[in-house]
Design a protein that fits this description.
Blueprint (H helix, E strand, L loop, with lengths): L4 E2 L27 E2 H7 L5 H9 L3 E3 L2 E2 L5 E2 L5 E3 L2 E2 L1 E2 L5 E6 L27 E2 L8 E7 L2 H8 L7 E7 L6 H9 L1 E3 L2 E3 L3 E5 L2 E6 L6 H8 L4 E9 L2 E2 L8 E3 L2 H6 L6
């Protein structure tokens, strides 16, 4: 079988005496290879936590054998998830995309609709960080780095996201904004905005959660109909003047501003 693929191609390796496949430890020696959950994370398959779930569900194999939690893999080992060989990029990449309306945030769509992946270069392991629904626009991150995805989406980090909202009813009054700040009851529990201010035709709000269509549902709960929704900021990253449908690669400095410093 072929080994793990990378942008530079699989590397041939020679096995030394006493080294078993799958990165097993030799007697009295330090463990060799890389933990599978970290490997899956680097490949953009899943965060380390989700990778552990994949391994526990027996969906990961190494050299044709079902993997175990804590197992390591060596360069050249044939690592597969659901039968598909792992493909490692030369290095992680993260894109900031100005998502247009009308694009779904999935790799493929059974209904043939356009996806955000039509707007960026084909990249192994690339996946969206969170979601923007089909009708929403604005700042969307796509990355091959599973750890970054965890850092930006896990509730414990409370990453702020800012939205410009246009409503059918026009500019949102102060009383309605106060209701959003105080909190409303949604069908999946209470929710509130962290900050809010009126704007022509609607409002600007900040949230720290990422529930499905949360901003639209918040406004519906205060009797406002969202006609247009644009995400303008994630953490310290701003959409700025990036044209609709365009993307750019994030720099290490920008990742650091998000509180993420990859090793």
């Amino acid at each position: 079988m072929g080994g793990m693929k990378s942008g530079r191609g699989a590397r041939d390796r020679k096995r030394r005496g006493g080294r078993a496949s799958g990165g097993r430890q030799r007697d009295g020696a330090a463990p060799e290879g890389e933990r599978l959950q970290r490997l899956l994370s680097r490949a953009g398959v899943a965060s380390r936590r989700k990778a552990e779930e994949l391994i526990a569900a027996r969906r990961v194999t190494v050299n044709g054998r079902v993997a175990e939690l804590g197992q390591r893999a060596l360069p050249g080992d044939d690592v597969r998830v659901d039968g598909k060989q792992l493909s490692l990029p030369d290095g992680d990449v993260t894109y900031l995309l100005h998502k247009p309306a009308g694009f779904v945030t999935t790799a493929s769509d059974e209904r043939g609709r356009r996806t955000v992946f039509d707007l960026v270069p084909p990249t192994p392991g690339l996946h969206p960080v969170g979601r923007l629904d089909r009708d929403s626009e604005g700042l969307l991150l796509l990355t091959t780095d599973g750890e970054l995805t965890l850092r930006l989406t896990h509730p414990r980090y409370g990453l702020e996201k800012e939205y410009r909202v246009w409503c059918k009813e026009g500019r949102v009054d102060g009383g309605t904004l106060k209701r959003l700040l105080d909190g409303v009851e949604l069908d999946d529990g209470p929710a509130r905005v962290l900050a809010a201010r009126p704007a022509p035709g609607g409002a600007v709000v900040v949230i720290a959660e990422g529930r499905k269509r949360e901003v639209r549902r918040l406004f519906k709960a205060v009797d406002r109909t969202v006609e247009r929704l644009v995400r303008t900021r994630v953490g310290d990253l701003k959409l700025g003047d990036l044209p609709v449908g365009a993307f750019r690669e994030l720099t290490a400095k920008e990742l650091a501003r998000l509180g993420y410093n990859p090793a």
